[in-house]
Fold:
Amino acid sequence: MRSRNTALSLPDPSPFLLSHPPFHWLGFRRHRSLSTVMGSQASTLLEEIKKETGFSHGQIIRLYSRFTSLDKGDNGTLSWEDFQRIPELAIDPPGDRIINAFFPEGEDQVNFRGCMKTLAHFRPIEDNEKSKDVNGPEPLDSRSNKLHFAFQLYDLDEDDKISRDEMLQVLCMMVGVSISDEQLGSIADRTMQEADQDGDSAISFTEFVKVLEKVDVEQKMSIRFLH
Amino acid sequence: MLRAALPLLGLPLAGAGAAEEPTQEPGSWGEPPPGLTLFRWQWHEVEAPYLVALWILVASLAKIVFHLSRKVTSLVPESCLLILLGLVLGGIVLAVAKKAEYQLEPGTFFLFLLPPIVLDSGYFMPSRLFFDNLGAILTYAVVGTLWNAFTTGAALWGLQQAGLVAPRVQAGLLDFLLFGSLISAVDPVAVLAVFEEVHVNETLFIIVFGESLLNDAVTVVLYKVCNSFVEMGSANVQVTDYLKGVASLFVVSLGGAAVGLVFAFLLALTTRFTKRVRIIEPLLVFLLAYAAYLTAEMASLSAILAVTMCGLGCKKYVEANISHKSRTAVKYTMKTLASCAETVIFMLLGISAVDSSKWAWDSGLVLGTLFFILFFRALGVVLQTWMLNQFRLVPLDKIDQVVMSYGGLRGAVAFALVILLDRTKVPAKDYFVATTIVVVFFTVIVQGLTIKPLVKWLKVKRSEHHKPTLNQELHEHTFDHILAAVEDVVGHHGYHYWRDRWEQFDKKYLSQLLMRRSAYRIRDQIWDVYYRLNIRDAISFVDQGGHVLSSTGLTLPSMPSRNSVAETSVTNLLRESGSGACLDLQVIDTVRSGRDREDAVMHHLLCGGLYKPRRRYKASCSRHFISEDAQERQDKEIFQQNMKRRLESFKSTKHNICFTKNKPRTRKASRKKDGVANAEATNGKPPRDLGFQDTAAVILTVESEEEEESDSSETEKEDDEGIIFVARATSEVLQEGKFSGSLEICPSPRIIPPSPTCAEKELPWKSGQGDLAVYVSSETTKIVPVDMQTGWNQSISSLESLASPPCTQAPTLTRLPPHPLGTEEPQAPLDLSSDPRPSFAFPPSLAKAGRSRSESSADISQQQELQPLMGHKNHTHLSPGTANSHWCIQFNRGGRL
Structure:
């Protein structure tokens, strides 16, 4: 599906962190705090990420060190293999899909900034953020963005609809082998019926949101990032 | 509060002198007169249990009375009413007996009243929610309780030093700390009683409630440590004693939890092997949980913690292992016991407060304590919440904190502990008792009364009770996986990581060890939800009086068909065409897979081969109901049997058919048609005689019974597995007696119909119809004999006309013809719509023997259609006469069996 090996072998043509050549070398220094080596451009980058994602300074630095440790190719980006190397992720049923969600469309590499953007979906929603920035772009950790992230995991063909087959695939992943295919089928059917309101045999994002309106998504799709 | 109590006290005391006879006076009659007596009064022998029963009865009656008025109970928590009732009753008892009786004894409380409540709360604790908030709960339970105990104790001591407490209260710092430790613990009973009616959001509830359960360990330790320090005398306390005190905190809490977990493990393991003795399953749950409590108590560990952990830990496995019925039994018994205990506790609390000999009043101490517990609780909550909010995903806001502070109710635990104090060692015990009573009453009554308006006024987020949906379940699962994956990516092994880990461990080892294999195989939460939803749909559908075949009322999901293909096709059909009338047939058509056909063939074979006990049932029924003509009936039975035998021999000679069993069956079917009169066209068979049927039925019964027996064992197994609806035409319960009798008679093929397929689902209606007179068994029985004569004649003639009935093959090809069903179907809807009773006005066509049959068949068809949807519970609702045949209908799980 993806050409995975290119990234590893190449010396890394793509500059680290979105065309900031000076910081390319940062990628080679693992566990070195971003701030210690930070020049002016790095700090602007950091500011950008902060603004974009809402992560705090400390969180970004911590995540950066994690990023570099994952980046075995030392090229400033994470490839499919890099993710696969995380042992637990490899055995997580929807692991592949989640890894996929990290990559921007059509690419098989993700840089730190992109990674942070994905991770930002899982920041807990904070009170002060609810009030501020009514007009600004919706923060990545908003409820609807969280839901959209989940929705994308279902929606493989990216037609903004979950079809029955897609639902069935997810079910297959989530449900143990103990349940027979027939049963899975009927579960999928029922699930579809429950959510499908306009009768098109598919779940649109609106329907998806509607089904989950009673669920405390803010909590259930958030993790605590260490400061 | 006490003010209110005092007048009450005064009255009884004044009247006490006049009332000479104590309540037990009846006991004095008990002296038996000399010589043989016709009547003996033995009050003393039953006194103790009788009184217990009486108290519980009084409490329960009071509960009923309270709930007569919705207005009162919506305003006043039940616990308040019970306490007030207790005050009144206590007053009366005091007035009559001149001494306070029936106090809340600490021994009774801790050994009998508390365990059911704790078990109930632990067992039904929403475990996910509990562990999600475990950090907060533990903080409040441990830090909060310690904080409350020490600050309250110290502040009271300060109050005394300041001279605000009367000097007659002789207490040192240690005494006050001891008092602080017992008064500071939030009480699970009180919290549960009040918060259950308030319906705050579940997070808030679980935090307050979890705290009240888990703080027991701290309370116990503090209480014991302080108590022993007081008894030793403060001068003798060594440094090592303090260290030991700290260490004992860990021993008591962890030990208690460990005991609970061990017993949870044992319990789960035991229930794994109860397959053949389902009946003791509920008992095991209670026994082992109680054993956990007593064990912990014996080792002076935290018993509450032990039972909580036991309930929490075993639930998943126990629920998977025990049968559906046992689950219901456990649930209701637990709720009943807990509710009973709670009621009695509050009532006894009220009664105990009346006993003025036990307490001594000191305004300074009482008011000071009240103020301090409220103040320090609030302060503690604010401080801890501030700390917790640094870590919490969803911070607790100010409103939550207000409710949490205000919800810190004290209750019977504090009271029991204070009663346990040794007066010689704690000279101020009486004051402490009075203060505790006031505090308990204040928190339960005043705070209990006001917390509801407060919650409303503050607009605290309420809990929304919504039914789980499949989507929700599935998506939440997905969320969990996503979060676990993200934590992996981030490299931070947080809560989700560990939960994921635990789940895998559980799946790999624990569940396999503790769950019975059949349960483990199908164990899946999503499936569970699906299953439950289906049952719920089905029940509600049936409740609405729906007819399965009339599609308009049919919620598709409620009728899961055996395989997804069928399901989808049905749903599509419904959605598109909206014509539900032929839903049934369509399902059948879609299900024509090879396997299904095979099943169907098998099923039909069995249908033909196995007979329905109906006739016999009826007969025996009539024996009970109509005693006078029992003999006559007997004769008829014999007559029938003879007839049948003759008929059979006749038949076999005539056509060389070896499936003797099938023949009667087919005839039955045809006969039905006859009765119905209109359906014949479909089958194209000539109507056959009814009389024959009757005779056949008698013998056949036996076999079907056998089948039922074997089935029942199987169904038991099935109970545990996912979605199996067992439709039993005969409500087994009613007929059991007969079965046993009939069993001896016939050695019948042991073949159990394989799990019915989708197609078979239909069959029951069809095949089963033949038999039953549903409602008035006596009537039908009367009718039948008369008809038999004519029926018999007809049968013979019809037999001849019967060339070779396509009995064996027909079922497989066209499922309807072989069975009376096909003919019945048209009729069924008619009968269904009308009350079954009207059907007894027999249509003219039925004038022959067919009457009872046809009517009953209509009823049967109705019921059988419903039964698949109804699950086991509903069997009892079926009219006794109905069911002869026993159908296992399995939805969606064909492969399993």
